[in-house]
Write a structure and sequence with these properties.
Number of strands: 2
Length: about 90
């Protein structure tokens, strides 16, 4: 993402990534967004030729899941909708 873009652009990137993830799932693929790439932005920037005026926000792995792998057996708890959203009605 261009360094000069405002904070709202971070939301745009998140929505774009979510759209890619939903489309991948529709095609039978799984995804894993990866913030850890940012910790190695210098190396990634050099390897991919990313110019200095751009920042690295995230990476994303995409492919076919191995559901027999132990790391894919984790089922995390989910916050109920009422725990993070407020619905206002007339």
């Amino acid at each position: 993402m261009d360094r000069e873009l405002l904070y709202g652009s971070w939301l745009d990137v998140g929505m774009f990534m979510q759209s890619v993830m939903v489309l991948a799932r529709a095609q039978g693929l799984e995804t894993c967004p990866q913030l850890a790439w940012c910790e190695y932005a210098g190396a990634v920037r050099g390897a991919l030729g990313v110019p200095e005026e751009e920042i690295l926000i995230s990476g994303m792995a995409m492919g076919h899941a191995d559901w027999s792998a132990v790391q894919n057996s984790l089922v995390s708890e989910r916050e109920p909708v009422d725990g993070f959203a407020t619905f206002l009605t007339d």
